[in-house]
Prior knowledge:
The protein has helices spanning 11-23, 39-51, 79-89, 100-103, 115-118, 129-144, 156-168, 198-203, 206-219, 225-237; strands spanning 6-8, 28-33, 54-59, 94-96, 148-152, 174-178, 243-251, 263-273, 276-286. The chain is an alpha/beta fold. It has 2 domains: 6-178, 3-Layer(aba) Sandwich (Rossmann fold), CATH 3.40.50.620; 191-280, Pantoate--beta-alanine Ligase, Chain: A,domain 2 (2-Layer Sandwich), CATH 3.30.1300.10.
Amino acid sequence: xxxxxxxxxxxxxxxxxxxxxxxxxxxxxxxxxxxxxxxxxxxxxxxxxxxxxxxxxxxxxxxxxxxxxxxxxxxxxxxxxxxxxxxxxxxxxxxxxxxxxxxxxxxxxxxxxxxxxxxxxxxxxxxxxxxxxxxxxxxxxxxxxxxxxxxxxxxxxxxxxxxxxxxxxxxxxxxxxxxxxxxxxxxxxxxxxxxxxxxxxxxxxxxxxxxxxxxxxxxxxxxxxxxxxxxxxxxxxxxxxxxxxxxxxxxxxxxxxxxxxxxxxxxxxxxxxxxxxxxxxxxxxxx
Length: 287
Ligand code: AMP
């Protein structure tokens, strides 16, 4: 059934809408986003509407997860476009669009920290990022009290951090990971792709090409993580524009580096194309 979208900007009104949905026996799903929505976000919204009856999509550019020299002020925003997309999708009941003052009326004294996971991979260049994410997601969980929350596999470290936080703190939320939506040439859809010049955009699919090579090697039986990491690194370093930040093979649950691929693992990459820092990964279950 096609849903009719409402926009709600205050915590109090959102709580009352959720309370009413729950009192009608409806299961509630949350999709946290920072807006500038694209098909990747919409696949999360569609999944949420399969998992639950009442779907809340939050649109909030969270200052807490941006470092001092990052793109908070320039982060792309277009609320009208986002609301049109959500409405046209027919899968979203409420767009929750709080202001920064609504979410952070006073500076926080309480935060959620996961140092061992937050300091790995992207955490090395973005040391405060995942505490900011964990804290805002905890606040959103407290505000919406969803039964289900959908996150993209594209942000693999974020998904791992949220899963662990929910487990450690007994949050009664079922976290669902949704596969990455890509452009035709393999580039993962991202709000940050707008930062790419035409030339950078042409080179950016090298990340997925390198990861696809890794996937094929692993499917052919390669279990040596060092060989996989070396092959992915070489492929990205051969590109004339990409500036590699990292390539790593990690255990999905802990984000610890692995030398042998086994169980649930992720091969994760980050690279700069001009001023845009792009991330991508593949997640595999290796027998
Ligand atoms: P963001 O607005 O970038 O914070 O992303 C909000 C949610 O959408 C996160 O759970 C992301 O992992 C997810 N997401 C972003 N891009 C994609 C994509 N290309 N495919 C699937 N999920 C995505």
